[in-house]
C-alpha cells in the first residue's frame, strides 16, 4: 500500500509541476498590452513646417500608442500634440491622428510589426491650415498614400517614408516602446 501511495503522490506531483510550468510559460509568452512613446517637438525631424508650427507654440510633440493584441494584431496610433491654448490656435480644434493596423511577431521584448494593412486618418487643421495647405478630412483607406506614413514622423505626411516592416522594443514594466 505504501508503494501505491508513493506512486500516486509522485504522479500527482508530476501533474502539478507540469501545470505550473505550462501556466508560467503561457504568462511569459505574451507582450500583449498598450505601450506609449512620447516624442518632444525638438526630437521630431525639423522642416519649415514643423519649425513654424512649433515657433508659434502649436505643435508640442508627437504621441505614439502601440496596442499589441493577444491575437497577434496591432494598432499603432500616431498623433501630433497640439497646444490649443496657444494664441496661434485661434480657439479652433486641431487634430492630426493616424491609426495603422497589421500583424506582429515577437521574441522576448523585440516586436516586429508587419507593414501596415490599413490606416484611418483624421485631420482637423484649424488655424494651422495656413502652414500645411492641408484640408480637414477623415479617411479610412488601405491605399499607398496613407500607408506610406507608417514609417517616420507623422507630421511629415507630405514626404512619405514608406510602408515597411518595423522592429520596436517594448518595455513591459513601464509600458513604453522605442524604434
Structure description:
There is one protein chain. This protein has helices at 2-28, 48-55, 129-132, 144-147; strands at 33-40, 59-68, 73-82, 95-107, 110-113, 118-124, 137-141, 166-171, 176-178. The longest helix has 27 residues, at 2-28. The N and C termini lie far apart (63 Å). With 179 residues, the protein is α+β, with helices and mostly antiparallel strands. The chain is built from four helices and nine strands, in the order H-E-H-E-E-E-E-E-H-E-H-E-E. Strands 1, 2, 3, 4, 5, 6, 7, 8 and 9 form a nine-stranded antiparallel β-sheet that branches. The chain has two domains: 1-30; 31-178, Lipocalin. The model is unreliable at 16-27 (pLDDT under 50). The radius of gyration is 23 Å and the shape is elongated.
Tags for this model:
single chain, 179 residues, alpha+beta, Lipocalin, 2 domains, nine-stranded antiparallel beta sheet, 4 helices
Show the helix and strand layout.
Blueprint: H1 2-28, E1 33-40, H2 48-55, E2 59-68, E3 73-82, E4 95-107, E5 110-113, E6 118-124, H3 129-132, E7 137-141, H4 144-147, E8 166-171, E9 176-178
Antiparallel strand pairs: 1-2, 2-3, 3-4, 4-5, 4-6, 5-8, 6-7, 8-9
**How do the helices and strands follow one another from N- to C-terminus?**
HEHEEEEEHEHEE
Largest sheet: 9 strands, antiparallel
The count of DSSP E runs of length 2 or more, i.e. the number of strands, is 9
* Count of discrete alpha- or pi-helical segments spanning 4 or more residues: 4
Low-pLDDT sequence parts: 16-27
CATH-defined fold name of the largest domain: Lipocalin
CATH-assigned homologous superfamily of the largest domain: NlpE, N-terminal domain
Helix amount: 10-25%
Shape: elongated
What value does the Rg take, in angstroms? 23 Å
Query: CATH first level of the largest domain: which class?
Result: Mainly Beta
- In terms of DSSP E residues, the strand content is 35-45%
**CATH architecture annotation name of the largest domain:** Beta Barrel
| Mean pLDDT over the full residue set | 76
Distance between the termini: 63 Å
Counted up, domains total 2
What is the structural class? alpha+beta
